[in-house]
Amino acid sequence: GDFLVGGYFSWEIDVWKKLRNSKNAAVSRFLGSIEGKNFLTSQLVSEIAETYFELIALDQKREIINRNISIQEKALEVVKQQKEAARVSQLAINRFEAQLLNTKNLKFEVQQEIVLCESKINYLVGRFPQKITRDLQSFNETAFPELSTGVPSQLLLNRPDIRQAEQELSAARLDVKVAKANFLPQFSISANLGFNAFRPQVWFNPQSLLYNLVGDLMMPLLNRNGLKAQYIQANAQQNKAVYKYEQSILNGFTEVYNQLAGMDNFSKSYQMKRQEVDILNQSVDISNQLFSSARADY
User: What CA–CA distances, in Å, run from 107 to 3, 57, 121, 205?
Assistant: First the structure.
């Protein structure tokens, strides 16, 4: 039989930068996927941190409830002594006891919220439910430095979702150029090299060597409707990428604006609450003094 061993090669001359634009579009999509991964990582870290601070707040709430339970238990004992002295009736005891039971019930509700927060953190880090180690005392003593925001618009440059949308928009723009270049003539060079012989003993003789080099010019005439559809689709994808990019910028700007406003308002609210707590603590001291001098009831 006749034996043929060879290889076939083909090169396209990138006259209209179609291949380069396709490569750059692929690179932009790859970079966009990296930014998407960074965005998901940022969201994950942010959600874990937010849940952890919520867990710390619930610990503080539980501590306050425990202190209130201790105070109300002492108050109940005082009211029972007052009843023995015929200064109050059983109604007062029932009221204090009902309030004590209500406060104890709040402790179980907070405890359940703590369990849910711990389970959420364990889920986010990819492990089964377990105890979350935390030090409430050291957290209360932590000094948080004041954040320097700079120019709010510059914060948008640090958002991976906006950078991802920008890379996707760049890739879509290059896809339009590639689709437009498909309408133009394509220049290609093909070559083949091999050995052909009836007998294996003479495969590698010069007489059995086959080679060919051909230039080709192909005009996209037969598939013009298909190329037109691809071009329309590429334009539609580019418009979609533009809208997504605008949406990412608007969403990012809104989130940054809300966070900056929240930092300012929460800081002012915290100062007001500190003043409120100071005044209420003074009221407690005054009430104890009035009660000790028999000028106010318990």
Answer: 88, 14, 21, 94
Q: Which amino acid is at 76?
A: L
Q: Which two tokens stand for residue 65?
A: 């409830």
Confidence (pTM): 0.74
Better-scored residue on pLDDT, 273 or 263: 273
| Cα–Cα distance, 18 to 175 (Å, whole number) | 9
Taking phi over 0 as left and psi of -120 to 50 as alpha, with beta for the rest, 233 belongs to alpha
Q: How far is CA 280 from CA 66, 74, 102, in A?
A: 19, 20, 22
- Angle subtended by helix axes 160-181 and 224-292, to nearest 10: 170
Tell me the pLDDT tens digit for each residue of 134-192.
Answer: 887 777 677 767 777 677 667 788 889 999 999 999 999 999 999 998 888 888 888 87
The secondary element (H helix, E strand) that includes residue 212 is strand 209-218
Supply 49's token pair.
């941190």
